[in-house]
Design brief:
It is built from 11 helices and 26 strands. It has 3 domains: about 130 residues, Sandwich (Immunoglobulin-like); about 130 residues, Immunoglobulin-like, CATH 2.60.40; about 120 residues, no CATH class. The longest helix has about 40 residues. Strand 8 and strand 9 form a beta hairpin. The protein is flat.
Length: about 450
Amino acid sequence: MKLKNTLILLVIFIILGAYVYFVEIKKHRKDEQVEKESKKVFTLVKDSINTLIFKNLSQEFSLKKEQNEWKITHPLETEADNSTINSMLTSLINAEKDKVFNVMPKDLFQFGLDKRSTVIQVSVTTGESDSIRIGDDTPVGSYVFAYKKDSTVFTINRSVKNSFNKKLFDIRDRQLLHFIRTDVRYLSLMRESGKIEFEKSEGSDWIIPSINRPADNSKISSILSKLENNKAKAFVDEQGTQLKKYGLHKPTYQVELLLGPEKGQKRLFISNSLNGKYYAKDETRKPIFEIDSALVKDIKQKLTDFRSKDFASFDRNEVNRIVVQYGDTLFTCLKDSANIWYLDDSTHQMVKSSEITSFFSSLDYTNISDFVKDENFDVKRYGLDKPSLKLSLYKDDELLIEATLGNEKENKIYAITNQINSLYLIPSSKLEDLKLKLDNIIEAPEEAESEEEIS
């Protein structure tokens, strides 16, 4: 009997729980959703909006979206800044009413809802449209008065009005060149001193084909970043017809990009300094605009400035044998399968892993101070036939890199590697950093326990 009563109570509890969930809780959630929707100023879907017209104290603007790109159609026809327009629309579509009250049409001016107001109208692909008029700030709080087509005035966050408080310069496309960074396969820079070309290798590193040497990837990245992210400072000729006036009839500088297969090329023409200003023009667009001098500064660098300053290129995780030679000293360090380093001699003494790590870091971060000569040079002249230090790094029997240091010159030392047939100068301090010494690298043997400790 007790079991039967318990089961009945359990069934009742389940029914009550189901009622509370499906009726009360779901109803409450639905009410919340209805209330939230009732606060929305616009019910249109942002991504469906394809026409935007707005008027503020500055002037009136008309924009249209074509193939997901926004274009300004008034007061002139030009590309718009997509991120700016999308941010403005997000602010508009997310706007919610705070306070709501009725106002007679003749009293709307008291809230700035007259000629002084900001007017925004949007249309979607289906042809449906909606609009709003935004007036003065409220006396208290960060809100503004707003009005639609009926007699209801409501308040919304002031940020919506601020989003549309834009001038033509704020909403237009100000990018120097349009391209996707990962598509760029070739870059050329034309300067007064001549043309420099760069090509991207299969491993995504940049090379200088004219000398067949690695380029400084960070320098190339800096130029591409400025082309991609820097903005025009001012537009000086919308039609782009005054080329001579702005020094672009015979540009002093030119940047050319070749993109991936079938993706074409991009060119930016840049003037010489005119009263401290630089002007530019994208080959595919009409306007002439002023640019920041930082890009020109990068373009004007010497060929040697664009060369990679990395002295040695290797993957330390692949190295399992190091041969060190200087003076009468010659020894080899080996790494076993447990990543423990030891001397390759009869003693098999363990080598301090911290010393090997420090050695790798020192070699990895050795930078070239000067480029002395490429290709043919006399190794004897620079002391490289009898090196002050020779390092050979292997992966099993494969030689990964061999670095040879020769004579010193002031505070630098001549150096070469087997990777590139060039002669360099590196800081002379690197000689001591890279010269592994047996007394420093061998692990001290563990002291044997005394008989007293054992007993």
